[in-house]
Amino acid sequence: MQAVQVARAVVQRRALITELVRRELKLRYRGTWLGFLWTMINPLVFTVVYTLVFTAFLGIGIPKFPAFLLSGLLPWMMWFTESVSSGTNCVVDHAGFLRNTVFPAEILPMVSAGTGMMNYVFSLPVLVLLLLVYGVPLGWSLVALPLIMAVQLLLVLGIVYFTATYNVYLRDLRYIVQHVLLVAFFLTPIMYDFSVVPARFHWLLKLNPMTIVIDSYRSVLFYGIWPHWRNLGFVLALSSAMVILGSMVFQANKETFVEYL
Amino acid sequence: MTDAIVLEHVSRRFKRFPTRGYTTLKDLLVRGEFLRRRRSRQYVEALRDVSFRVPEGTVLGIIGPNGSGKSTLLRLIAGIYRPTSGRIVVNGRVSVLLNLGLGFHPELSGRENIMIGGLATGLSRREINRAFDEIVQFAELEEFIDAPVRTYSSGMYMRLAFSVAVNVDPDILLLDEVLAVGDAQFAEKSRARIEEFRRAGKTLLFVSHDLTTVEDWCHQAVWLDHGGVQAFGNAAEVVARYRDRSGVHARR
Questions:
Q1: Alpha carbon A198 to chain centroid distance?
Q2: DSSP state of A62
Q3: Which CATH number is B134's domain given?
């Protein structure tokens, strides 16, 4: 059973996975002065510009808007987009490894998902700082944060197993993914709250499982309430199914990858 | 004596790709390759019905002209490719050195590459740390081990790759045309290491165009031509027959 094989791969190869995640993070900032700050600057610039447009120009009155925005923006920008776009190309990027060494390809999507997660984790202090500056109380609901992250990790992994596999055969996929991510950014309640969307459009937002994930982050970090457990449970089930199915697809195609690289 | 490697009627074919190895959306939509694909698919048979056994502790040379399937054979034994048909049994941990250094990341230091390379072969962190000094010393890279690999000369690159491959304690070592690189002194050292390796009862397969080396080092040799086994057996005899045949070709 492929899913069991994959689960076993995580356990057996955890040292290699952490080493590769470390490599990804290290390589990104090697030779730069500001290092990790560069990754943080992106969402921060975003936050400043959006605050200006939304609160000053349009006069939309979400209180503590920068804290509101960043609590939903970070898991999207630092992690989701990051992991899905680099993950889509992960097999192709490691062509040299896969063709010339005995290399466990099935861990590459895990490396992409894990790298994004670490990216997010490193950005959390900035968010906490901003929350404190805006006087958002950090409550007990924070203990649910690791759980929401676990759900997102599975969701990202499930997506990447599929996109990484098909990107080997159809290299357009990485560009398609970029556009889907852009559209999804606007159709996910990141810049706005789910509650302000008219009910007749709810289905459109719910097409995207990240809607529930982002909403959960915001509940826990910004509103200080528990996430909607039933919805989160639904995403957890969906993500797990995607990981199982995706890893099966990946494993089934693994043997043919080398011919296409 | 047990066999380290057994190949039974192993064949491997590859899809023939017109220009590149992958499709783009344009190909699918504009040229309708979506519909045509199955009908027009052509295959190249890289290996045809290859069978032989390699007993433990053997040094086997693989010879043959370019494109005869030598590297494909190594990749099959390493498990990078699966055979299209036939059976391959490999007993022991395999270390493989194909296209020098392509398993290295140029931006990472030698130290980091050793760690990743070792973990990928299936060693634990502790085992790698234990072998680390030996790897660096053998590669003569003590001074440069923390510099990014992209700053290495090709000789340094190849010494590191070779050193990693032989020092991760494999039972079976597969080398693809690597002994030709490097200076005389390092070649001598490599040879000594391989000799040591052989004496420890380990198995070594190597592809080479240098027939003298094959005669000197190998017990056995296999001569591949167009994916099929032309000859298999005593290294000196196989090389002699190969020389004979190539000589005839040259005179024509």
A1: 26
A2: -
A3: 3.40.50.300
Residue A80: the pLDDT is 97
pLDDT band at B250 (very low <50, low <70, confident <90, very high): very low
Q: Does the pLDDT of residue B252 top 50, yes or no?
A: no
How many other β-carbons are positioned within 10 Å of the β-carbon of residue A158? 22
* Domain span holding position A178: 2-260
Per the CB < 8 Å rule, is A258 touching B81? yes
Asked if B94 and A258 come within 8 Å (Cβ–Cβ), the reply is no
CA distance readout (Å), A171 to A92, A168, A174, B15, B36: 9, 6, 6, 18, 19
Contact A19 B116 (CB under 8 A): yes
- B165/B120 Cα distance (integer angstroms): 12
Is any Cβ of chain A less than 8 angstroms from the Cβ of B214? no
Task: Give the H or E element holding residue B12.
Answer: strand B3-15
User: Is the Cβ–Cβ distance between B10 and B83 less than 8 Å?
Assistant: yes
Parent domain of B211: 3-251
The number of distinct structural domains making up chain B is: 1
Q: What are phi and psi of B226, to 5 degrees?
A: 45, 40
Which residues, 6+ apart, have CB-to-CB distance to B18 below 8 Å?
Answer: none
How do residues B120-174 score in pLDDT, each as one tens digit? 888 889 999 999 999 999 999 999 999 999 999 888 888 898 888 888 888 999 9
Cα gap A154→A223, rounded to integer Å? 24
Q: How far is A247 from chain B (nearest CA, A)?
A: 19
What is the full DSSP assignment across A158-177? Answer: HHHHHHHHHHHHBTTHHHHH
pLDDT one-digit tens code per residue, B175-193: 887 666 667 888 888 888 8
Question: Residue A104: its chain B contacts at CB < 8 A?
Answer: 120
ipTM for this prediction: 0.80
Domain count, chain A: 1
Q: Compare all CA atoms of chain A with the CA of B165 and give the residue at the minimum distance.
A: A101
